[in-house]
Fold:
Amino acid sequence: MTNFDSIILGIVEGLTEFLPISSTGHMIMAQNVMKISGEFVKTFEIAIQLGAIMAIVMMYAQRFLQSFTIYLKLGVAFVPTGIVGYLAYKTIKMYLFNPYVVGVALVIGGIILVLIDKKVVARESKTLDLESISYRRSFLIGLIQCISMIPGVSRAAATIIGGVFNGLNKKQAMEFSFLLAVPTMFAATGYELIKTPITFTSHEYTLLAIGLIVAFISAWAAVKVFIKLVENYGFKYFGYYRIVIGLLFLLFIRF
Structure:
């Protein structure tokens, strides 16, 4: 793995982590296209998620400090993901982490985004603010987030759609998705790293540093642009993108 590889993967991670297009799916696609693999690559892919997470932590630092209630709502939303993730970890890794699942999930998810775009964009909020969302609705959003454990589905897509159909408008749904990403990704990344042997060379530490920094910068930029795009155009174009990239990837691995 080269410095250039770490830059490319860092960009892919940062750009896709908080968009409804599946970061896991794109990382799997990128590694297949770039033809890189191995234990370090797996660890690298997991570790640089911390760069993307820190972008959200810093962007929403003031939001996290406004109210303790939001921590309770996020905690309730995280519960189903934490339980299902812990129980199904080995099965998911064994049977679902392959290119074909990613391609199919991208296409199906894209079709769903396109079909529900008008309904999602038109949905008005039934909640004054995120602190006002009920614990029941928080739990349901977290339950829907569990679907994103299938690579190619997208955690962001699942939680945003889940938020909209649980009374949030698109802006609130995006914000809740970003905030919920912090405990979810910290837990998932930490669990993965605990189960992964960590012995790096000096060159590998350099690759990790590059990946973390690039992921942080690209995630920050992606979230800023994503919010503007959704406000102006909704989610349908992300759906179109998913369909196209998913079909192209299926053709790539088939031929």
